[in-house]
């Protein structure tokens, strides 16, 4: 590089000026690109035109593929065989080094085909194992990268147009042998004619190179094509390669040869070529004078001999491409010839008019006589087949003293065509550029003249011809240079483009992966803050009643065990007890102090003496940690006084803190003890084998003995029953079981009472209950005691009955049993009162927490309890309209059976009508249809068919959607895997680009059409059209979640693909990147590509992609069910980032880094539809709506009644979105309308479940102003449709509401009753409404609506069943008594004891599967029943599971529509 720059400086920026100055330009000016040089063939000689072929191309396939192994020898082997030899042999023609490097400069200025093609194609040179330079470790996998040249895409497609290469010349070939103008010439010497370089190249250098004089110039030949030939490109430099010396001398004008300072500060006699060529910096070349010395040294130095030998500087240590610092120049030239499709040696000779060679020794007889091993080794590489010998090695081998006949012919032909085919050649007098005198002046100018003028040297310091040195010329070289005495060539290294980037790249990827974690943390913080605010709002409405005695306790930390954290507590000492509370004054523990207990107090004697252990018999120990010994001593003194006041003795001693904690019995240890207690207790009661009772450790005999001798406190007894210690039921049961009255239950005491409940007869159980509630022990139960007994049962339902209701129940039960005149009952009277409930008492248990009731009892208690009596035993009114045969058919023995006294309780009863004075519970059965036994395979097929039938719309839509998305993915994946080789990106990053582009297509489609699932107005409209039969519009939200979940998975895969791409792009050479991204990169010779961070943060797609990942992480985390429930506002705000999301998506793809933007193709139509739908909603949101009534209902429910906007039409079961600006936010929340379509106003029932709804309840709690404007205004959006509004399409519908999820069914029930009352034709003939609630107090507002429905339902259209889930199941003692009371109340007053409704009230959770089975029996003619559920996800999942189980049968189909909240 230094040598070429020196020559360029001399030729183009020299100070030499010709004698004849030109006048201002008055003639035709040549185009810089060579176009129109030839007026007939405008492209001839122009820049970028194809190379001319003197001989037809020779490709492996005849068109495109280069020849190579095994047909041709390995280039490295061939290079070592042909060119390896000794250095230091002088030129036989005394050619100078200046002639060699001038030739390199001249030829590189003419043409270069080393510009890599696009897409990048590689013909890598495989290094033979054990190569001393490139593979000294004998790895066998070393390759030298070699990129194929840029080629004309119009060629290489058919044999008649094989691959052709356009030259990458700095100037056009029409400029002849040198450029005509350059900025340097124009800037420094505008009068310097560039034709001087043409003259030197053709008439001075070429004769010295070929030892032939070009033919006389006869004038411009317009029919001669001056284009560069591919043979000339490959052959021109090969002869010069053999003449390059291992070093270059430097001298001054006085013939003093200078010492060269190397980079390592060592000194040598010459510049080493391998360490200096193509290097921009060198210690000995720092000034213009140094360049002058280099030129003078090259003019005096004799080049290497003209033979086949190439010095190691060129052969082994030539500047390498891409990651390699070194390469084999000769091997690269051989590979370039194969890339260009050069013909074989003999074909080229024949085409150029030379006689063919038939024997290997005839190639170079002189070489054969002097060193026949070279030709023999070459023949062996070509398998003795001379026809395969290539042009380059053949031409190199035939050269001696001068280029061989083949090279000479090719070079001379090219220069003659360049001269004679150039219309602007300086000797062409017809172009009017120069006069004969000027032409003669140019012809007489030599390179010596130029050098003398440029470097201001004495002409005597240079020989007449600087290209040849003759004996007697000035400044002879000291000696012929060899490698001896020169610094060694720097060894070959492989650059690691990714070196130093691994850690940063990993941190970047880790940071991207942390986006979801950061979003999770942010969401968690927001949720915590929102929950804190919510609790603060709740705390403002709920003031805890705390005894004044609890205020001001002693602070301490309670040690709970080695595996449990300590907790801050307050210790309160009161007469007879010690209370431990937390910071919120919530009672944690109460320790009873009763004589004659012995209290042990253990104090720590080390570590600050701040630990205290209190041991109370039959309790687990209390370990307290204080801040100081003084605080502990204060508690000890107070404790002594309290124990002395209670009459208890205390024993104190000290232990080391570690021993104290080892001696403490923690709560966990006590729980293990009680577990053993209950295990052996129930093993004796239920006759369970010892193995079933649980295995014990081998050394546990002492522990078992300790467990069986321990006694339960009142608190532990209450905890085992799942109750509170202060409950009346616990007190009564505990007092009855505690026979010795010591305040604790022993194993035997607990066993005695448990045996009665588990194995006792109804009489024994009733006697036990009688004794429990005979508080005064007189053998009689008064009415007050009876009321107290009922109250102890009803405590578990939050005291839901008033005193008047209890008194009414008791009076009705006494009156029903004929004891209305009695004030007290004996046990016989009490048992007589329960005479109709022996079956319930037989299965009554004492439910102990953690102990399962035997399944046989559960099975006996599970019955279909939903069918009204009229359906089983038709009333006379119904029978009057039925034929006698029909009744006989209905009342066959198989259909109707009467239960015996041993049957479990039945709940099949009449719900409406007058009082029923007598009630006989009947079990409804049906003669099952004849069923065939099917194989398991057949059953599976049937289940699959039913599943397809149930979800065919969903399956169809999902299949179509994912088929489109999958098709888009496969189309892009196929394109980049098999059809995009012309771009070259597939060869660079196959997996990454396939994954990233395939997922990008699917993501573009999904993120575009996900907008349609949120077009609520459009969906509400379309669900009323015929399309609803094919598209499940009710599942729009679920489909939205499904698309979003799939899209985020594809986004992750897309990101993974781009991570792979970024890594591969970061280690790809600039020549490859310039092909892939021509708009970003230019192959300017830079060694290193851009780093990974440039791709991530300094490109538009990379930066927008990173921001998109952050936005998606925030949106997805805040949209999850968990965080949406805890912070709806966070979900609302973050989901509005979708606007930024789509903006970023558009920018991300519009940069067209890899392909043209395609996102708009998918996005445009959905965006227009979504925008129109949004405009419709915005038009409604601008209208303020006045609230006409606001009512605060129990259980945190707010009832809002507001004006119905003009033209507002809706259907029962639909929902709206409301916003209240008075809350300081514009967020909209969805709520189901509880008003019916026929009503004049709209109503909502909103439960205070979060901060927004709680604040809404607050602002509507205290209205101000006049009647019309006293409530804050609302903004309404809707109505919107959902599956619940399709209830009328089914002949039988089941409505299941849980908690606040009953709101849509309030509207449906009122709508059905109204339509039936006005004789409106309704497809639905029967509705079963199941209301699941924790307590009936929780949603008392719905009871009023159900009561209204019951009063107006004259056609028995609605069957209501209420489930109170807070109560245990029927076989528990407490629930049994409540059930008995409910039966009495229902029978006597025809309404529920708990709700006041005529609807049936159940205790526990509904068994949906049994219910649906019973519906199949009651409605055998109905083929499809609609099930609509709304409530907590757990409940809807149970309903869905029951429907799926029932739908597996070939009977009635249950179509489930659900909505979670």
Largest sheet: 8 strands, mixed
- Counted by DSSP, the helix tally is 55
Protein structure class: alpha+beta
Helical residue percent band: 40-55%
Give the overall silhouette.
elongated
* Distance from first to last alpha carbon: 76 Å
Low-confidence stretches: 1-23, 169-192, 542-551, 688-699, 850-932
Strand line-up in the sheet with most strands: 12-11-10-9-15-14-13-16
Beta-strand content bin: 5-15%
Kindly state the number of beta strands: 33
Gyration radius, rounded: 51 Å
What's the overall average pLDDT, rounded? 76
List keywords for this structure.
1461 residues; alpha+beta; elongated; 6-stranded parallel beta sheet
What is the gist of this entry?
By secondary structure, the protein is α+β, with helices and mostly antiparallel strands. It has 55 helices and 33 strands.
Describe this structure in words.
This protein has 1461 residues and is of the alpha+beta class. Strand 7 (318-319) and strand 8 (326-327) form a beta hairpin. Residues 1-23, 169-192, 542-551, 688-699 and 850-932 have low confidence and may be disordered. The radius of gyration is 51 Å and the shape is elongated.
Q: Can you lay out the helices and strands and say which pair or pack?
A:
Layout: H1 2-12, H2 75-83, H3 97-110, E1 125-126, E2 143-144, H4 183-188, H5 195-210, H6 230-235, H7 238-241, E3 247-248, E4 260-261, E5 267-268, E6 271-272, H8 273-276, H9 288-300, H10 312-315, E7 318-319, E8 326-327, H11 329-339, H12 345-351, H13 365-370, H14 372-381, H15 391-397, H16 405-420, H17 436-443, H18 447-455, H19 502-541, E9 554-558, E10 567-574, E11 577-581, E12 587-592, E13 598-604, E14 611-615, E15 622-625, H20 629-646, E16 649-655, H21 657-663, H22 667-685, H23 690-693, H24 701-709, H25 714-721, H26 728-737, H27 747-759, H28 762-772, E17 781-782, H29 783-794, H30 803-816, E18 824-825, H31 827-833, H32 838-842, H33 855-861, H34 869-872, H35 876-879, H36 884-890, E19 896-897, E20 923-924, H37 936-950, H38 952-979, H39 985-988, H40 990-1009, H41 1016-1022, H42 1036-1066, H43 1070-1076, H44 1092-1097, H45 1100-1119, H46 1121-1126, H47 1128-1135, H48 1138-1150, H49 1159-1181, E21 1184-1185, E22 1187-1193, E23 1197-1203, E24 1215-1219, E25 1229-1232, E26 1241-1247, H50 1251-1259, E27 1274-1280, E28 1292-1298, H51 1303-1317, E29 1326-1333, ...
Parallel strand pairs: 13-16, 28-29, 28-32, 29-30, 30-31, 32-33
Antiparallel strand pairs: 1-2, 3-6, 4-5, 7-8, 9-10, 9-15, 10-11, 11-12, 13-14, 14-15, 17-18, 19-20, 21-27, 22-23, 23-26, 24-25, 24-27
Helix pairs in contact: 1-3, 1-9, 2-11, 2-14, 3-5, 12-15, 19-45, 22-24, 22-27, 29-53, 30-53, 38-40, 40-42, 40-49, 42-45, 45-47, 45-48, 51-52, 54-55
């Amino acid at each position: 590089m230094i040598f070429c720059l020196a020559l360029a400086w001399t030729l183009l920026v020299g100070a030499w000026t010709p004698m004849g100055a030109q006048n201002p330009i008055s003639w035709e000016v040549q185009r810089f690109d060579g176009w129109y040089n030839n007026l007939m063939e405008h492209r001839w000689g122009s820049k970028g035109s194809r190379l001319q072929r003197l001989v037809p191309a020779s490709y492996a396939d005849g068109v495109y593929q280069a020849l190579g192994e095994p047909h041709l020898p390995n280039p490295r082997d061939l290079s070592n065989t042909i060119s390896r030899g000794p250095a230091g042999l002088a030129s036989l023609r005394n050619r100078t080094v200046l002639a060699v490097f001038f030739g390199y400069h001249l030829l590189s200025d003419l043409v270069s085909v080393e510009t890599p093609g696009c897409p990048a194609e590689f013909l890598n040179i495989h290094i033979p194992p054990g190569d001393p330079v490139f593979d000294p470790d004998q790895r066998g996998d070393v390759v030298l990268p070699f990129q194929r040249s840029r080629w004309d895409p119009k060629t290489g497609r058919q044999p008649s147009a094989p691959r052709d290469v356009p030259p990458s010349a700095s100037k056009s070939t029409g400029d002849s042998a040198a450029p005509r103008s350059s900025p340097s010439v124009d800037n420094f010497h505008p009068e310097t004619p560039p034709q001087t370089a043409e003259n030197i190249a053709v008439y001075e250098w070429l004769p010295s190179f070929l030892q032939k004089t070009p033919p006389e110039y006869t004038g411009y030949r317009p029919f001669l094509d001056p284009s560069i030939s591919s043979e000339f490109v490959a052959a021109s430099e090969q002869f010069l390669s053999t003449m390059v010396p291992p070093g270059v001398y430097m001298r001054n004008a006085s013939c003093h040869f200078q010492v060269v300072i190397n980079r390592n500060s060592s000194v040598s006699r010459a510049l080493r070529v391998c360490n200096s060529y193509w290097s921009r910096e060198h210690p000995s070349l720092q000034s213009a004078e140094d360049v002058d010395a280099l030129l003078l040294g090259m003019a005096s130095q004799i080049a290497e001999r003209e033979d086949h030998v190439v010095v190691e500087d060129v052969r082994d240590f030539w500047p390498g491409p891409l990651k390699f610092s070194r390469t084999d120049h000769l091997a690269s030239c051989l590979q370039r010839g194969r890339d260009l499709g050069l013909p074989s040696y003999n074909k080229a000779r024949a085409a150029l008019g030379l006689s063919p060679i038939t024997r290997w020794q005839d190639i170079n007889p002189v070489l054969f006589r002097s060193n026949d091993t070279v030709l023999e080794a070459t023949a062996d590489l070509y398998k003795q087949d001379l026809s395969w010998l290539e042009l380059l090695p053949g031409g190199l081998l035939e050269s001696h003293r001068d280029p061989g006949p083949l090279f000479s012919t090719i070079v001379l032909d090219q220069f003659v065509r360049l001269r004679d085919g150039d219309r602007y050649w300086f000797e062409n007098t017809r172009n009017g550029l120069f006069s004969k005198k000027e032409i003669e002046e140019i012809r007489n100018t030599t390179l010596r003249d130029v050098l003398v003028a440029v470097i201001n040297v004495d002409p005597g310091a240079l020989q007449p011809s600087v290209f040849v040195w003759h004996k007697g010329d000035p400044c002879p070289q000291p000696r012929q240079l060899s490698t001896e005495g020169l610094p060694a060539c720097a060894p070959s290294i492989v650059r690691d483009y990714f070196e130093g980037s691994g850690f940063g790249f990993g941190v970047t990827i880790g940071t991207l992966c942390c986006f979801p974690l950061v979003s999770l943390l942010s969401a968690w913080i927001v949720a915590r803050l929102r929950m804190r605010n919510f609790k603060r709002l709740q705390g403002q409405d709920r003031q805890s009643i705390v005894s004044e005695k609890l205020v001001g306790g002693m602070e301490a930390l309670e040690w709970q065990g080695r595996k449990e954290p300590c907790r801050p507590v307050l210790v309160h000492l009161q007469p007879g007890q010690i209370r431990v509370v937390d910071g919120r004054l919530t009672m944690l523990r109460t320790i009873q102090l009763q004589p004659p207990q012995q209290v042990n107090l253990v104090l720590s004697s080390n570590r600050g003496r701040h630990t205290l252990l209190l041991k109370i018999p039959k309790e687990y120990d209390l370990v307290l940690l204080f801040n100081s010994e003084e605080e502990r001593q204060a508690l000890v003194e107070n404790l002594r006084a309290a124990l002395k006041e209670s009459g208890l003795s205390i024993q104190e001693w000290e232990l080391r803190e570690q021993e104290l904690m080892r001696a403490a019995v923690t709560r966990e240890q006590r729980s293990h003890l009680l577990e053993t207690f209950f295990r052996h207790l129930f093993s004796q009661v239920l006759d369970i084998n010892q193995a079933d009772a649980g295995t014990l450790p081998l050394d546990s005999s002492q522990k078992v003995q300790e467990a069986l001798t321990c006694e339960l406190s009142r608190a532990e007894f209450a905890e085992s029953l799942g109750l509170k210690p202060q409950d009346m039921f616990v007190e009564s049961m505990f007092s009855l079981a505690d026979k010795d009255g010591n305040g604790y239950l022993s194993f035997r005491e607990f066993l005695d009472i448990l045996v009665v409940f588990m194995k006792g007869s109804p009489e024994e159980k009733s006697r036990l209950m009688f004794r429990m509630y005979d508080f005064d022990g007189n053998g009689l139960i008064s009415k007050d005691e009876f009321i107290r007994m009922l109250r102890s049962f009803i405590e578990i339902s939050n005291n839901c009955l008033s005193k008047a209701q209890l008194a009414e129940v008791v009076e009705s039960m006494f009156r029903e049993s004929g004891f209305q005149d009695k004030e007290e009952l004996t046990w016989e009277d009490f048992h007589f009162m329960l005479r109709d409930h022996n079956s319930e008492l037989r299965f009554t248990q004492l439910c102990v927490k953690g102990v399962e009731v035997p399944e046989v009892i559960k099975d006996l208690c599970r019955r279909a309890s939903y069918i009204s009596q009229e359906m089983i035993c038709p009333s006379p009114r119904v029978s009057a309209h039925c034929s006698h045969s029909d009744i006989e058919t209905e009342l066959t023995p198989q259909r109707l059976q009467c239960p015996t006294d041993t049957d479990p309780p039945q709940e099949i009863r009449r719900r409406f009508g007058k009082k029923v004075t007598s009630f006989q519970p009947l079990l409804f059965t049906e003669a099952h249809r004849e069923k065939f036994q099917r194989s398991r395979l057949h059953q599976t097929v049937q289940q699959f068919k039913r599943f397809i039938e149930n979800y065919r719309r969903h399956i169809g839509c999902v299949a179509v959607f994912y088929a489109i998305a999958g098709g888009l993915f496969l189309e892009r994946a196929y394109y980049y895997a098999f059809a995009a080789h012309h771009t070259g990106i597939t060869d660079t990053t196959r997996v990454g680009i396939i994954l990233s582009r395939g997922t990008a297509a699917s993501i573009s489609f999904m993120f575009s059409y996900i907008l349609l699932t949120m077009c609520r107005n459009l969906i509400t409209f379309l669900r009323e059209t015929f399309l609803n039969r094919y598209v499940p519009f009710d599942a729009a939200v679920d489909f939205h979640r499904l698309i979003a979940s799939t899209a985020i998975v594809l986004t992750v895969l897309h990101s993974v693909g781009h991570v792979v791409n970024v890594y591969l792009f970061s280690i790809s050479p600039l020549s490859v990147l310039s092909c892939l991204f021509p708009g970003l990169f230019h192959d300017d010779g830079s060694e290193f590509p851009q780093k990974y961070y440039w791709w991530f943060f300094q490109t538009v797609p990379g930066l927008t992609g990173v921001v998109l990942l952050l936005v998606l992480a925030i949106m997805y985390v805040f949209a999850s069910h968990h965080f949406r429930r805890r912070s709806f506002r966070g979900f609302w705000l973050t989901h509005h980032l979708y606007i930024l999301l789509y903006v970023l998506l558009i920018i991300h793809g519009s940069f067209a880094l890899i392909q043209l933007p395609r996102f708009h193709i998918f996005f445009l139509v959905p965006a227009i539809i979504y925008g129109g739908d949004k405009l419709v909603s915005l038009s409604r949101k601008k209208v303020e709506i006045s609230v006409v009534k606001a009512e605060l209902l129990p259980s945190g429910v707010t009832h809002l009644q507001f004006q119905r906007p003009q033209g507002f039409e809706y259907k029962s079961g639909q929902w709206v979105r409301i916003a209240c600006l008075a809350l300081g936010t514009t967020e909209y929340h969805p709520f189901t309308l509880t008003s019916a379509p026929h009503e004049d106003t709209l109503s909502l029932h909103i439960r205070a479940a979060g901060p927004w709804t709680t604040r809404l309840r607050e602002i509507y709690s205290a209205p101000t102003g006049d009647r019309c404007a006293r409530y804050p205004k609302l903004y309404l959006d809707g109505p919107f449709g959902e599956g619940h509004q399709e209830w009328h399409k089914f002949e039988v519908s089941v409505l299941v509401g849980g908690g606040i999820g009953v709101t849509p069914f309030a509207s449906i029930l009122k709508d059905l009753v109204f339509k039936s009352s006005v004789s409106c034709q309704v497809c639905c003939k029967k509705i079963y409404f199941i209301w699941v609630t924790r307590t009936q107090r929780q949603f008392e507002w719905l009871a009023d609506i159900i009561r209204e429905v019951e009063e107006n339902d004259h056609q028995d259209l609605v069957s209501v069943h209420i489930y109170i889930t807070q109560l245990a199941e029927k076989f528990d003692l407490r629930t049994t008594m409540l059930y008995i009371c409910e039966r009495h109340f229902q029978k006597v007053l025809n309404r529920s004891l708990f709700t006041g409704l005529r609807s049936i009230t159940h205790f526990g959770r509904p068994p949906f599967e049994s219910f649906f089975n019973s519906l199949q029996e009651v409605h055998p003619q109905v083929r499809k029943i609609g099930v609509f559920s709304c409530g907590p996800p757990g409940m809807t999942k149970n309903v869905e599971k029951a429907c799926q189980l029932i739908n597996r049968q070939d009977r009635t189909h249950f179509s489930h529509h659900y909505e979670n909240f």
